[in-house]
Amino acid sequence: MAGGIQNAANIPELRRRVLFTLIMLAVYRTGVQIPTPGINGEALAAFFAKNAGTLFGMFNMFSGGALEKFSIFALGIMPYISASIIFQLLTVVIPQLEALSKEGESGRRKITQYTRYATVVLSLVQGLFISIGLESMAAPGSGAMIVIEPGWSFRLMTMLTLTSGTAFIMWLGEQMTERGIGNGISLIIFAGIVARMPAAIANTFKMVSAGELALIFLPVLLVFMAAVIAVIIFFETSQRRIPIQYAKRVVGNKMYGGQHSHLPLKVNMAGVIPPIFASSIMMFPETIGGFVQVDWVKQVTSLLSWGSPLHTLLYVVFIVFFCFFYTAVTFNPVDIAENLKKNGGFIPGVRPGKKTADFIDKIMIRLTVIGAVYVSAVCVLPTVLINKFNVPFFFGGTALLIVVGVAIDTMSQIESHMVMRNYDGFMKSGRIKGRR
Question: How far apart are CA 183 and CA 322, in angstroms?
Fold first, then answer.
């Protein structure tokens, strides 16, 4: 591993890319500390301290703590991710977008441009609703209002500030993808999650010193963390490789084809999308319950509170549903079978065309079942640990899936640069397999 890092430092282009990525991440983390005008910071911090387990807490995690400070990057990159997912789904439904996606680089650039416009619109709408919501909020206990001077001047300023911040983060991510190393958008989310870990670890030791957490439990917690990380790495790099045989073709006086290849199918094809969607849906009742003071709403909120049996059951159901739904939307066995047939490829023992599509679909369903069980276990087990042993920070679920997945992707890209220049990779025993 040390030798691999030293080899990476010896490649000027790779060194420049890594340095550029680090500088862009530093710019992002600096922007997180710049507050939006017109906000009572102490009242906002008290509000988030009480609502850490609601939808606000989830968005605050993905924004790297920017939302609880209500900085210029408070919306984070979530509007861009939402717009990207919307257009990804619309590509399957709208024929015009589907035709654009098949036009190659020019078509993808147009879809990317539409995604940027949608991001700005979503940011303006979210900025308006957030500013209106903040005007009616007060700090628990003291009753101090979060917004110093409510009104349309505050709303318009907040909409403009938050939209500009999201657009700038979107630009940062695209620059990192183009001129840096790894996927820029994923690295921004990665940096936001990782930046909050030191404070969570420090809080753990404070609880130990205060006697709220048993000292003997810390080694068990560390072993559990290592086991969860190992399981995630195993499943995120696992593939089912279907053998592909290409028929021989005679072109002029030369014979082409007859090659062997494989079709890699990931176990977790949907990635982190299912837990993100499932978490958002399951956090809505508790978030609404904090504002609506009605008896039946409070009862429903209590039944669906985080960690309750009904909440856990519905959470798993939504994860499984979105695993199958997202895989079905983004993976089309019919298109793969047609492309294999056009290129003279076939699966040994399976007829080309519909039989091949059915064969691939059958395998994909089995893999999705395994992936859904794995994602559900990773997301639910840490929650059980928190409720059972009072662990003071969330180490698992969506956050850990993102951190480990982005780390694997980035290391695989660095290794690809090194192998292209005849250097050894990070690992002497084998290559790092990316998630895609």
Answer: 23
Residue among 5, 2, 8, 1 nearest 417 (CA): 8
CATH number 3.20.20.30 given to 1-195: no
234 Cβ contact list (under 8 Å, min separation 6): none
Return the closest-CA partner of residue 72 out of 44, 31, 43. 31
**DSSP E strand boundaries for 196-313:** 239-246, 249-251, 254-256, 260-266
Tell me, yes or no, if the two domains 1-195 and 209-395 fold the same way: yes
134 and 162 Cβ atoms separated by less than 8 Å: no
Q: Where does 209-395 sit in CATH, by number? A: 1.10.3370.10
Query: In 325-419, at which residue ranges do the beta strands (DSSP E only) sit?
Result: 345-346
* C-beta separation of 265 from 239 below 8 A: yes
Three-class SS state of 312: helix
pLDDT digits (tens, 9 = 90+) for 371-423: 999 988 888 876 676 666 666 555 556 777 878 878 887 887 787 777 766 65
At 247-291, the pLDDT tens digits run: 766 555 665 556 778 888 888 888 777 887 777 677 666 656 655
Q: What is the model's pLDDT at position 436?
A: 45
> Residue 220: helix, strand or coil by DSSP?
helix
* Amino acid at site 130: I
Q: For residue 196, give both structure tokens.
A: 């909050």
